[in-house]
Write a structure and sequence with these properties.
2 copies of one chain form a homodimer. By secondary structure, chain A is of the alpha+beta class. Chain A folds into 2 domains: 75 residues, Glutaredoxin (3-Layer(aba) Sandwich), CATH 3.40.30; 122 residues, Glutathione S-transferase Yfyf (Class Pi), Chain A, domain 2 (Up-down Bundle), CATH 1.20.1050. A 4-stranded mixed beta sheet of chain A has the order 2-1-3-4, with helices on one face. Chain A starts with a strand and ends in a 6-residue tail after the last helix. The relative contact order of chain A is 0.14. At the A-B interface, helix 3, helix 4 and helix 5 of A face helix 3, helix 4 and helix 5 of B.
């Protein structure tokens, strides 16, 4: 297996943390997203969508999309479980991971990609050119802040995002909070449960991945 | 189990088709999305995100998000498998389902929700008010048309979206193509493989769900 990665990008960090929690090391190739390497002929053969992460399997085929990559790793290396153990737990992890993606991570991507100077003409990930929409950047910021409140409410009653155990949903949420901070979308100080959770998951060695 | 559904909306149709393929019938409650019933106090107790589908389990807890609902049903009723059988197949179904969602379904939602007269102030699903962004509606239309080309390319080499077997990725793509047509985003006639596939999956009895 080989992971196509970019050390400074949020989506591949989700896979890096997932692997670190499992204690797995795999060969990695860095793709220089800021230099446009994802659009090279060589990388298009790996993933025609021109995004990382991508996981090349030993048969040469390639899995992209974080949720699919993590599911593959989870099935190959079940311990420790990061996607739930029982059917109900697995459904809750999947649900919360999807909520964090759709209400948090994609909104953050809207905020970032529609405002960053270096992404003019690349407001959507992938090979196609789309101009930035400044109103969408603003909406994205507002939605991320709104979602932080929902996460705080959930974390008031649960130790982790999807319940009693650390899971993939925590990884997605950690990457959201950290990258949002990097683009200056800061969780308000009064969200004490979100802050408590963020402090805890940030202390795990995997957070350095 | 009880499914909270809306007969005319695309997301719950994904679950209805999934259930029909499994041959499962469950109790269903229709939520009148166009009348705003999703924002009622009663439904907020079921799903505070104010969206359908939502699956209420026998213990009273609720699973939302299509991918989590389908995963739960797949684990409870494994035959016929709609999310792949081997680890590799399961990763491919998960990957293609995510691609169809992100590049197709969410782009279509951008097109619809940012232009429909009845959705002014509700440009994002959920309880929060966001104004429509007409430029985003246009971008959404362009992205859906672009994605139809990618689907056509994939279907030139594969009978179904994720490979040799009908799967959840076909269900997501069928709902995309049909709802896009309803909002007048039509797949160009020269996408012959997409048309062949659409004809085949539309003939399955589940497509009427």
């Amino acid at each position: 297996m080989r992971l196509y990665d970019c050390k400074t990008a949020p989506s591949p960090r989700r896979v890096r943390i997932f692997l670190a929690e499992k204690g797995i090391e795999i060969e990695t190739t860095q793709i220089d997203l800021w230099g446009g390497e994802q659009f090279s002929e060589a990388f298009r053969k790996v993933n025609p969508d021109c995004v990382v992460p991508a996981l090349e399997l030993d048969d040469g085929s390639c899995i992209s999309e974080v949720v699919a990559i993590c599911q593959y790793i989870e099935e190959m290396h079940p311990e420790p479980a990061l996607m739930g153990v029982t059917t109900e737990e697995r459904a809750h992890v999947s649900m919360w991971n999807a909520k964090v993606e759709q209400q948090g991570l994609w909104a953050m991507a809207d905020a970032f990609r529609n405002s960053a100077k270096g992404l003019q003409g690349h407001a959507v990930t992938g090979p196609d050119a789309y101009p930035q929409i400044p109103e969408l950047a603003e909406r994205g910021r507002a939605r991320v802040l709104q979602f932080f409140k929902r996460l705080d409410t959930q974390l008031a009653d649960h130790e982790f995002v999807a319940g009693d155990s650390y899971s993939m949903a925590d990884i997605t949420a950690l990457v959201l909070v950290d990258f949002a901070r990097w683009i200056k979308i800061l969780a308000p100080d009064d969200l004490a449960d979100l802050a408590r959770w963020h402090g805890e998951v940030s202390k795990r060695p995997s957070a350095a991945a």
